[in-house]
Structure formats: C-alpha cells, structure tokens
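> forwarded from #structure-qc
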C-alpha cells in the first residue's frame, strides 16, 4: 500500500500532496478529510502576508489527470501511449478545513 505524503508548511504556502487519506495529517492552516486515494491540495496567500492574516487565499484541490487511452508500462514508470482527448480528471471528494483564524470547513460532493 502506498502512503507517501509531501507536506509544505510555510507562512504563505501550505500543501498536502500524495496519499492524504492514508496519512491523515494536516499543516498549520490546512487540513483535509477526503475519500480520494491520491491528490494535491495547496493553499497560498495571494497577498504578501501569511495565510493566517491574508484576506485573499487561493485553494487548489486536484486529483490524478490522464488522457483517454493513456497507457503505462508494466512497471508503471513510463507512459507507452499518451492517448488523447478528452482529458480525464478525478474530482476531489470530502472536506477541506482551514483551521486557525478562519476555523472553517469547505465541503463539496460531485
């Protein structure tokens, strides 16, 4: 079972990238309770201020993306066929929380 996770916990940018559900970790102003196996969730201040005091934030939540018909080698290390349109994007399902001064949870479903 793959469980790797990259975290970024800087004042102006924070992220959870990888197997977020398996790890169940959070950073200072970003937490996630999602059902996706793998995803990237990034939170960035859009001002020259830390996330905790910024009035403008950019939140990006993305899942795996691939072209229709895309194929990988048996080791899963190299693309053998890039496929074509339409591009398939996995939506993120669950709750993303902004703990700290925002103390809010963003929830959506598709």
């Amino acid at each position: 079972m793959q469980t790797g996770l990259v975290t970024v916990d800087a004042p102006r940018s924070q992220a959870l990238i990888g197997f977020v559900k398996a790890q169940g970790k959070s950073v200072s102003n970003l937490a996630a309770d999602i059902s996706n196996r793998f995803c990237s969730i990034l939170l960035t201040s859009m001002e020259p201020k830390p996330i905790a005091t910024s009035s403008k934030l950019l939140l990006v939540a993305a899942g795996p993306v691939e072209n229709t018909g895309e194929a990988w080698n048996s080791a899963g290390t190299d693309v053998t066929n890039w496929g074509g349109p339409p591009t398939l994007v996995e939506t993120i399902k669950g709750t993303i929380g902004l703990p700290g001064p925002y103390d809010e949870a963003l929830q959506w479903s598709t």
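QC bot note: The chain has one helix and eleven strands. The two ends are 26 Å apart (CA to CA).
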